[in-house]
Amino acid sequence: MKRLFVHLPDFDNFWKKAKLDDQELLEFQTHLLENPKSGVVIKETNGIRKIRWKKKGSGKSSGIRVFYLDVEEFEILFLITLLEKNDKENLSKAQLKILGQLTLTLKEALKKGRRNS
Q: Mind telling me which InterPro entries this protein's record contains (predicted)?
């Protein structure tokens, strides 16, 4: 299985803010590469998944929550954003609605790109 990982700016910013390093990112991406459907689908988002991930030196329950979109048809996995458990457990309804719109936009852009190539 292969995937192109695309990091949205929010994801990179929050990853650094959570003091996570490149090795942890590689481990996380390897997990998603092997288990792209391991996160729970959030119904309001048109396919975005949420997965709990532990930070080094802590358990899953005190780790991070990562929101990602796996577009299997195109072998692309978008790392969208993350939350630290001690900051916030979930996104608001308004944020989920925005992510749902983002999902549709990303999928449409991929389909349009394929038609134009």
A: HigB-2
79-83 LR contacts (CB < 8 Å, sep 24+)? 79/5, 79/6, 79/7, 79/8, 79/11, 80/8, 80/10, 80/11, 80/48, 81/8, 81/10, 81/11, 81/14, 82/11, 82/14, 82/15, 82/18, 83/14
- For 103, the domain range is 4-116
Closest CA to 32 of 52, 56, 60: 52
What's this model's pTM, rounded to 2 decimal places? 0.91
For the domain that residue 92 is a member of, what is the CATH number?
3.30.2310
| 40-76 pLDDT per residue, tens | 999 989 999 999 998 877 765 668 999 999 999 999 9
Q: Which of 25, 5, 4 is nearest to 16 (CA)?
A: 25
Q: Determine the average pLDDT of the residues in 79-105.
A: 91
DSSP conformational letter for 108: H
Q: What is the pLDDT of residue 56?
A: 79
